[in-house]
Known about the structure:
Elements: H1 2-9, H2 15-30, H3 42-65, H4 70-87, H5 90-101, H6 107-122, H7 126-139, H8 144-159, H9 166-169, H10 171-174, H11 176-189, H12 201-213, H13 235-248, H14 275-297, H15 308-326, H16 332-351, H17 360-368, H18 382-392
Helix pairs in contact: 1-2, 2-3, 2-4, 2-5, 3-5, 4-6, 5-7, 6-7, 6-8, 7-11, 8-11, 12-14, 13-14, 13-15, 13-16, 14-16, 15-16, 16-18
Amino acid sequence: MSNITTKLNYSEFPECSKEALNFVVKTFSSDPNRGVPGRSSSGDSYAINIAQEYVIDKLRKRGKDNKKFYDIHELQLLEMLCSALQSAPEHACYNIFHAIFGGHVDQTKITFMTKLVSMAISVSAGPVLGCAALWMQEKGSQSQSVCDLAQMLVDDYCLLYQDNNDAFKNLPKVSSLFTCNFITALTTIYPYTDISKSPPHALLQCIVDWISSDSCLCSDSVRLVRIQSTFTCPISGLVRWCILGPLVTVGSCQESSKSKNELESDKKTSNQFSESKLQSLFSKLHLGVLSSLQAYKSMELNEHLLTLTDLIIVSKMLASFYKGGNCTEDMIHIVNISTDRLAQVIQVALTTASLPGENLFYQSSKALCLFRLCSLGSKLTEDNLILGSLKKSSGFNVC
Length: 399
């Protein structure tokens, strides 16, 4: 092993990084037991140290010292790594990825990983996206590092280029787990608390199409619950989108309501997303969420996708939007639709065991007693929003 270290020390970048990458790939690919819990060896740690010192550290140093040829050399490494992960045995693939991007997360790693994932999306490299998906699951799809990765991918595929290419649109077919965790991160980045926190229209269209075409997509991360101690799924964030989105985006097609997340070039395509089209997208998204909850029941995974806290937070935001003076008379109809959707989500979630049902009404009453009780004719508040939703959950038509 000392021979490879000596060779790397006498090599310049990028040759040393390429040699280091070759060594890491051969190390983890040579033995099918490598990376299996309880069967790791000292060679694994040595390979990880080689990857960190001669790939990541060299990238970090060269990025500061020599900008002229850095981009070309970096692209060569990205192509090499992407190809290596695609051709590596299944048992070795994530170990190679983890050797480079595991451990402490910093901006160099996130930037390099984002470029690798972006390249993998463009060439539909499933093994690379699968590795990235496991990394996202490990870090938590709502963590800052994962959200940073997701935001840079949005910049690449939804903001810089308005017309999403087929590779991005077909992302769930290449890696459903990556798409699931990606959507979870996006619902964290864009919580729809106001127009500046809404996703680009092109991205919204893609997500609606993804979920509508595969009712099991949102539950894909839950499948790993047997080997991952925790999981996150996008259902709670998507519920917030289809309930708060219609209110936040009313009038967003007007110039004064343009989101700061959209680039100037988006003005040329904004007419493609009229207010009526946006509302229809939210309706389609809502149906997709209900279908996802229904499909989850057949998986028998015994995990809850929603909590009462998630629903109370949404109802409070819906009520505060109304009480904050943002709700005109013309928007009352949309408020009623959003309230109906909240009721429908509660009903289907209870029916499919996606929401804890034990003592639900007791818990909701206990939580809501903190708020002022209102008469039936009073303005919408946190109280009658959630209680009204619970009453409406006896039967519904999708809206």
